[in-house]
Amino acid sequence: MAFKLDKVKPREKSTSNFDLDALLKTEISLFGNSFSNKKKEAFYTELSVLLSAGISLKESLNLLLEEQKKEKDKLLLGTMVNDLVAGKSLSNSIENVKDFSEYEYYSLKIGEETGSLQKVIKELGLFFRRKNEQRRTVLNALSYPIVVLTTATLAVLFMLRYVVPMFADIFKQNQVELPWLTKMVVKASNLFQEYFWSFAIGIVALFVVRKIVSKKVWYKKYSAKFLLRIPFVGELMRKMYIGQFTQAVALLTTAKVPVLNSIKLTNKMIDFHPLQVALTDAESRILSGDNLSESLKPHKVFDNKMISLLKVAEETNQNEFIFERLTTQYNEEIQYKSKMLSTVLEPLIIVFLGAFVAIILIAMYLPMFTLSSVLG
Fold first, then answer.
1. Which residues lie below 8 Å from residue 40, measured CB to CB, with a gap of 6+?
2. Alpha-carbon distance 85 to 248, whole Å?
3. Are the CB atoms for 254 and 123 separated by under 8 Å?
4. pLDDT tens-digit profile of 247-281?
5. DSSP letter assigned to residue 35
6. CA contacts within 13 A on the Cβ side of 292
7. Burial (Cβ within 10 Å: 0-12, 13-18, ≥19) of residue 226
8. CA proximity to 293, closest of 306, 280, 278
9. With 192 labelled, which of 93, 146, 248, 311 sits at a CA distance of 20 to 30 A?
10. Are 363 and 179 in contact (CB under 8 A)?
């Protein structure tokens, strides 16, 4: 029998500004801020193994409790064990714990209602493993370009702050006529020195303002549009979010959750405005009688390949297999595009910043020829 989402009591929202919808873009905490997605992957995977071995849920949590080294970890697991002894279910035990996402809460609740808790826990482990793999892939692709960009930018700023003024003083003392390029570089250096603190404060203010407005709908809308228009990066991010969508629906489909309920749950956890708009529209279309593939087809965030496979899945009643297959394909594409992104960014950054440094050096050395003739 399918699980009815409307029978589940909604989770109580915390009075803090904790944003559960941002959990797919940031590290999801399980035991405080120190429990990362990597640790969460290990938690669900080990719990699944223990349950598969025939150990009860309470004893499995006790075994995991003994492995914990941090006091917060022990306290949380100890509370979960005590709740189980008191007659609560696992989902009820985590219901009001902010370190767990709504997705985890509803997934565990679904598993308990359908008698597939062990399978759901295993799928949660796989979900976080895939998410960690995506994160590592993107970080590996961007780490070297970011290091190169940061180092080169600091070098350029150092030259504008110290090197260029030193040459400018020498030229001024010897009354050397400066070429146009040198005048522009000196002017840029003077502006940088004059407004250095304003520039620094502006950057800090930019991050603060972004933090304040990051949960606003208009910010999510326009930031997503901007992100999607960036070559290579936009397509990579789109596939990452679609990959997370297929992972989530695959897990819920495994637990025999109806399509409409799967869309509702997935819409709550993915903080990507184009996808949220598409899923909200899909909900209304499904209620009007359309199937999933027809509901998603009008939205550009979903590619034609995915729509075609979903149509096949609906005709052959193989939703679970198709969503798992889509997840695998998207993960492979993310790895490939991440490598491509790294391959393209590295030479572009080096060439761009190298040209910038070369312009500064040329601008400083051009007047040296005039200065040598004056001194001679």
1. 28, 30, 128
2. 30
3. yes
4. 888 877 776 778 888 888 888 777 788 898 999 99
5. -
6. 24
7. exposed
8. 306
9. 146
10. yes
- Residue pair 250/323 in contact by the 8 Å Cβ criterion: yes
**Which tokens is 106 given?**
């509803």
- The upper half-sphere exposure of residue 242, i.e. CA atoms within 13 Å in the direction of its Cβ, equals 27
* Residues with Cβ within 8 Å of residue 298, at least 6 apart in sequence: 281
What DSSP string runs through 289-358? T--HHHHHTT-TTS-HHHHHHHHHHHHHT-HHHHHHHHHHHHHHHHHHHHHHHHHHHHHHHHHHHHHHHH
Coil/strand/helix, residue 147: helix
DSSP state of 257: -
CA–CA distance, 37 with 51 (Å, rounded to integer): 21
| DSSP state letter for 69 | -
Say what the alpha-carbon torsion angle 326, 269, 232, 277 is, to the nearest 10 degrees.
90
Query: In terms of DSSP H, where are the helices of the chain?
Result: 37-52, 57-67, 71-85, 90-94, 102-114, 117-158, 164-173, 180-194, 196-213, 217-229, 233-254, 259-269, 273-287, 292-296, 304-316, 319-375
278 sits in the region (left: phi over 0; alpha: psi -120 to 50; else beta) called: alpha
Residue pair 349/145 in contact (Cβ under 8 Å)? The answer is: yes
For residue 23, how many other CB atoms are within 10 A of its CB?
21
Return the amino acid letter for 94: I
pLDDT at 374: 52
Confidence of residue 194 (pLDDT cuts 50, 70, 90): confident
Q: How far is CA 226 from CA 26, 54, 147, 293, 300, in A?
A: 20, 51, 24, 27, 15
Pairwise pLDDT comparison (73 vs 289), residue with the higher score: 289
* Model pLDDT, residue 127: 78
Whole-prediction pTM: 0.66
Return the structure tokens found at 77.
Answer: 């697991």
Confidence category of residue 35, pLDDT binned at 50, 70, 90: low
Nearest of 296, 304, 310, 229 to residue 267 by alpha carbon: 296
Q: Where does residue 125 rank: exposed (0-12), middle (13-18), buried (19+ CB within 10 A)?
A: buried
Distance CA 205, CA 195 (A): 15
